[in-house]
Specification:
Blueprint (H helix, E strand, L loop, with lengths): L3 H5 L4 H9 L1 H19 L12 E5 L8 H14 L4 E5 L10 E2 L6 H4 L1 H10 L3 E3 L3 H11 L4 E5 L11 E7 L27 E5 L3 H6 L5 E11 L15 E6 L4 H10 L3 E6 L19 E4 H4 L10 E10 L1 H16 L2
Parallel strand pairs: 1-5, 1-6, 2-4, 2-5, 6-7, 7-8, 9-10, 9-11, 11-12
Antiparallel strand pairs: 3-4, 8-12
């Protein structure tokens, strides 16, 4: 049976039926989220401020928008400008209760897949907790950081922030445009009027047709390495054989499309976001050639997959997005 998320991005009778039948719940959800945000804005509910700048990289859509590669790129941007960043995250998929700083020997079950991947790629301190305020407090007490980046948390209003960056998946947009549970929106689209930067993962059709540059980034493949021994190969080495492509991310089709554009013939295996892999998931094809995302790799490195390879990507920022980041973030770091 298809998940509800599938119908958020579909047209037709079934998709319309499910969406419209859930609209009363969506209306209630919108009212509650609106009131909650207003309570923080009017200071009826208490929020907490850190002693260093806080930048939230999040979205208004449930199910992922590809924000983690952008966060990694911003970490590198801050490092290249001579400053030290730290990251806080919900740690979705982690079995930890309370607050924890990600360590090099942690598993994805301990740290969560995205926090572990962020730590492995950047080396910056990463702290996970369902309570973002507690995570920020722990991060700053235990580490020397000039700025805090929050992986998601746009709706975590108890944590004050200096800059909000909202990421939009250009290929999927806002789905049917309804709030949860009838649609994918965590907040109404009008919420984007209040954020500091809107960053598109990919380029919208409108921008492409009008030949205009928007604040966007593209995911470019930079490395392919073996899951177990770390051997590096060229992506072209997969062009003459059929391979199994695994993706347990917010938008698996983006990963599959990118591989196809590089001339690779695929057997697609789309799993739910944050899926916890077991050997049984690969029971009939575990010895075949497999490629997967880095987010999947941190949850598969304990499995017996002799011919599994990891596709590493980087977020290439458009000039307009890079300029916007420079104009908004660097003055905070320099105290100007």
């Amino acid at each position: 049976m298809k998940s509800l998320q599938h119908y958020w991005y579909q047209s037709g009778f079934l998709a319309t039926f499910f969406s419209w039948s859930l609209l009363p719940l969506s209306f209630l959800y919108c009212v509650v989220t609106f009131i909650r945000r207003k309570l923080y804005q009017l200071k009826f509910k208490k929020s907490y401020s850190a002693n260093v700048p806080v930048v939230v990289i999040g979205n208004i859509v449930a199910g992922g928008s590809g924000k983690t590669p952008l966060l990694i790129a911003i970490c590198e941007f801050i490092k290249n400008n001579g400053f030290k960043a730290g990251v806080v995250s919900r740690g979705y998929g982690s079995n930890v209760v309370g607050v924890k700083q990600v360590q090099a020997n942690d598993s994805a079950a301990q740290a969560g897949d995205e926090p572990l991947m962020i730590y492995q790629r950047t080396g910056v301190p990463v702290v996970i907790s369902a309570d973002r305020v507690a995570a920020v407090d722990y991060l700053l007490k235990k580490n020397q950081c000039d700025i805090v980046l929050s992986d998601d948390g746009l709706q975590h209003y108890r944590m004050q922030r200096n800059i909000e960056i909202a990421v939009i998946d250009a290929s999927r947009g806002f789905g049917n445009g309804f709030c949860l549970p009838a649609g994918p929106l965590r907040e109404r689209v009008s919420r984007l009027n209040d954020v500091d930067i809107i960053a598109y993962n990919g380029v919208t059709e409108q921008a492409r047709s009008e030949a205009t540059e928007i604040r966007s980034y593209a995911l470019r493949i930079i490395d392919v390495y073996h899951l177990s021994d770390g051997r590096h190969v060229a992506l072209s080495s997969f062009s003459n054989k059929c391979i199994h492509a695994v993706a347990g991310i917010g938008n698996p089709s983006r990963f599959f499309t990118q591989l196809k554009k590089n001339g690779i013939e695929l057997i697609e295996h789309a799993f739910s976001d944050h899926h916890r892999y077991t050997q049984a998931d690969f029971l009939t094809w575990g010895n075949d050639c497999i490629v997967m995302t880095e987010k999947d790799a941190v949850k598969c490195n304990h499995l017996s997959l002799p011919d599994a390879w990891v596709i590493s990507v980087t977020a290439e920022l458009s000039k307009s997005l890079e300029l916007e980041l420079s104009e908004k973030i660097l003055p905070l770091l320099r105290g100007s």
